[in-house]
Amino acid sequence: MSTLRFVTTNSGKVQEAASYLDGLRRVEQLDYDYAELQSDDLAAIATHGAREAYRETDDDTPVIVDDAGLFVRGLSGFPGPYSAYVEDTLGIERVWELASDLDDRHAAFRCVVAYTDGDTVETFTGAVQGTMVAPRGDGGFGYDPIFEHDGTTFAEMPTDRKNALSHRGRALATFADWLAERAD
């Protein structure tokens, strides 16, 4: 079975990818700090990262990079692709404060997985719809305590349920389908 490198410092993401790609590819973590493109477009950011990481590897092993964000409709999509920076500088409590007075607290987590084998770059998108709520739950990470899906925040969900619903999981499932089609 051939190998695929997931460019991330998060071993949990690697485990999640391995579960979706089981039988298709062996997934290894590549801890490489690529220069993140500043853009409003998740696909452009992930594509740039995948290309750069692939060029830095010493062989022809394909790589994937993901980029994700929380898009709040009532805040015109903010924080979007800047979600990690906003979380680090403002914190999720301040983001909730911004959203709490909105008439429209609809939000979506979105993710793009970019794949490259050096010759081609393909992107795969996943999203999950929800609502911004006051922080609840002790699990997950990032914005999970303030993102509610079907009455439960991601921080209140067991990891396996969250991964089955998640934006990253949906992008990885689409990617797995694409890989399976190529293998046939």
UniProtKB/TrEMBL annotation:
Its EC number is 3.6.1.66. It holds the Pfam family Ham1p_like. Keywords: Hydrolase. Gene3D superfamilies: 3.90.950.10. One of its GO terms (molecular function) is ITP diphosphatase activity. GO terms for cellular component: cytoplasm. This is XTP/dITP diphosphohydrolase.
